[in-house]
Write the structure tokens for this entry.
Amino acid sequence: MVEKIHLDIPSLRREYTQGALRRKDLTDDQPLVLFDRWLKQAYEAKLANPTTMSVATVDSDRQPYQRIVLLKHYDKNGLIFYTNLSSRKAQHIAHNNKVSLLFPWYQLERQVCFLGEAEKLTLLEVIKYFHSRPKDSQIAARASQQSAKIFARSLLENKFFKLKQKFKNGEIRLLSFWGGYCVRFNSVEFWQGGTKRLHDRFLYQWQHDHWQMDRLAP
């Protein structure tokens, strides 16, 4: 018999004690300086998949959706991820390219949120990345019509193994339904948990020709 466990959800709380974020820790001119530092610290802390980020989009009925993807590159021009261009997220972006990216580094009591607009990558950029992926990942991209309804997992697995046999000795050609996006950001918020729920929040917003940085109340 399975033991029933009662969770007193309102009482599930703990103090945030791992650190603080002060203005002296920040640079006025570029939010990626702190993001780069925090991402490296997340990697050094051996967090599982530190490049994991939640992508939020909105459909044509203004219904928000979120899902997890992996960051594959970033610089001052934007943050890059790849996906099936027939997926639900891609359909949303085609209708409204304003998106949010959230990095939830819970173990370090940190979050970083980017707001911006998603733009499709060029075919050359997509081809270059696609052929750098493990072969099984390339095959999976061809096998799965992302977000489409399927009758059973076995159908997906059978298609995968058939394609794996087909391309056993050959290069896998990129199909038109697979691509990627660069999110050109105009807002970045850094959140560091604090004791007594006095969290540290700093918001960078692009103002014409410079970054405006402000502290926000928790």
